[in-house]
Amino acid sequence: MSTNRRDFIRKVTAGTAGVAMGSSALGMSARSYGRIIGANDRLNIAIAGLGRRLGAFIPPIANKKNNVELLYLCDVMQSQREGAAGRFSEHIKYDPKLENDIRKVIADPDVDILFNATPDHWHTPGAIRAVAGGKHVYVEKPATHNMNENELIVAAQEKYNKVVQMGVQQRSSLHTIEIIKEIHNGIIGTPYKAVAFYTNQRGEVPVQKSAPVHEGLDWDLFQGPAPRRAYTQETWNYNWHWYGWDYGTAESGNNGTHEFDVARWALQVDYPTRVDVEAQKRHFMDDGWDMYDTMDVSFRFAGDKVIQWDGKSRNGYSTYGSGRGTIIFGSEGTVYVDRGKYVLYDRNGKVVKDSKATSNEAGTALGGGGDMSTAHVVNFFDAIRGKAKLNAPISDGVITMAMVHYSNIAYRIGKGFDIDNATGRMYDREAMKLWGREYEPGWEPKI
């Protein structure tokens, strides 16, 4: 929030103090007067990336108690901008500006916050531009595209001293916070293993074919930091997740991030010492999906702790009784936790406590949203205002992201490897070649 804006509002409110008739005496509408008296604490927001996560941002932004104002809706696709404006019009009584270029949004000094819900390859480059431009950033998972970006985004946050929240919303889930605290206090003895899982029934995706750029799409801006190539059909609309490594981070980054994060949080571990992966494309062998759709990962940590990842993108068999979640094993018991509840078991497998359904957060539905997304955004607002501790600071989030990148790198080079758990560096030359990525010249993220 700019000093000039604070000073202006302070002078206006001071000058109008004691005016009995309030807004009518000043010739203002009630809404205009309300904007002035709350402006010292108001946060001005821009959202970049108006796809499937948009619905998660509407409740906290529309809630007047949060005292925020939406200045921009930004997306490289015209229909996304217009659709988002229509959705927000049902909840707010003013019109945000529609913009296709994230750089123009960041250049506006009136913007205090950027919600970065763009495709994966834009997360770190967009966040770095935003903090350098004086904005606080809520960056959706996976937050980074590679290990080098892990270092860059943290360095930028520290340099510009802005609040950067990673969009792993289960960190703001009350039932998850409760049971993780109990685990740390010894309720299942010594936790030694976590199994993180995700199961979906994704279908076939089109084989990529050259096609005219969709009407209303700025394909150059969509690519942004990624190397330039010709457009292929439907790439912009979610399928970029599966079309190679220019834009996405596969299912490990798309959904594994959330479950890796809960597992690591429960076991209180940072970088692993070893990763081993078995991953392949197992379904619809002739479709356009370019990477694995089935993955089993094992991470080993100091203290004989283990995290396993069971990711099934296109086989809907419910191995663990639900579509996603984490199971934490301890010397004296076990905990099952997902977005809706937790169940605590003793060492004999008897249920000790069932929190029942305490959350309405979406599980495997595209986009999601719900009460924990709202709570995570509100925590972000409160941290900016100095009223709360940030639940998912980017400095911690990138350690979870390292697990995503290690699993993808091991798949890409076809072997596991050892890791320096103090620095996160990989003890494998082939793996280290994938530490970073190639950028379009002139678009490299810089601090």
Descriptive notes:
This protein has 447 residues and is α/β, with parallel strands linked by helices. The protein has two domains: 168 residues, NAD(P)-binding Rossmann-like Domain (Rossmann fold), CATH 3.40.50; 229 residues, Dihydrodipicolinate Reductase, domain 2, CATH 3.30.360. The protein has 13 helices and 15 strands. Strands 14-13-12-11-7-10-9-8-15 form a nine-stranded mixed β-sheet. A six-stranded parallel β-sheet has the order 3-2-1-4-5-6, sandwiched between helices. A hairpin with a 2-residue loop joins strand 11 and strand 12. Helix 3 packs across helix 11, helix 7 packs antiparallel against helix 12 and helix 10 packs across helix 12. The longest helix has 20 residues. The radius of gyration is 23 Å and the shape is globular.
Provide the number of structural domains.
Answer: 2
Helix tally?
A: 13
Share of helical residues: 25-40%
Give the SSE string: HHEHEHEHEHEHEHEHHEEEEEEEHHEH
CATH class of the largest domain: Alpha Beta
Strand residue content: 15-25%
Number of strands: 15
What does the secondary structure layout of this molecule look like, with pairings?
Blueprint: H1 3-15, H2 30-37, E1 43-48, H3 54-62, E2 68-74, H4 78-89, E3 97-99, H5 102-107, E4 113-116, H6 123-132, E5 136-140, H7 147-160, E6 164-167, H8 174-184, E7 191-199, H9 219-223, H10 250-267, E8 274-280, E9 294-301, E10 305-312, E11 324-330, E12 333-337, E13 342-346, E14 351-354, H11 371-384, H12 394-413, E15 417-418, H13 429-432
